[in-house]
Amino acid sequence: MRRPEADNPAAPPAGTRLCAVSELRDPGARGFRFRAGEALFAAFLVREGAEVRGWIDSCPHNGWPLAVMDDLYLTRTGDRILCAAHGAVFRLGDGVCTAGPCAGESLTPWPVAVRNGWVETA
Description:
Elements: E1 17-20, E2 28-36, E3 39-48, E4 51-56, E5 80-82, E6 89-91, E7 97-99, E8 112-115, E9 118-121
Antiparallel strand pairs: 1-9, 2-3, 3-4, 5-6, 6-7, 8-9
């Protein structure tokens, strides 16, 4: 399967250390932006217990970033990802939209791995 970030020159290469797991709230999220010339790559991490997942920061409804403020990707209860533009909500575990204008569509995964307490690109 083709990785969605493969065509983006700003996407960090596999093995790039992003942050320590301990820097992520539980549940919590943190956004990342990388630049290479004019290219921009935006993604975010979501932690839920021992699980850390990565998602490309783009709503399937309109392609806009999900958060209007840095790191505010989750609902107030922390149990869903929220698109601030139109109120779409996504499950933490699989990124599927459960309500809003893109119901049934999914966020695009960003492959990450936890190694020795650090989150890295995979």
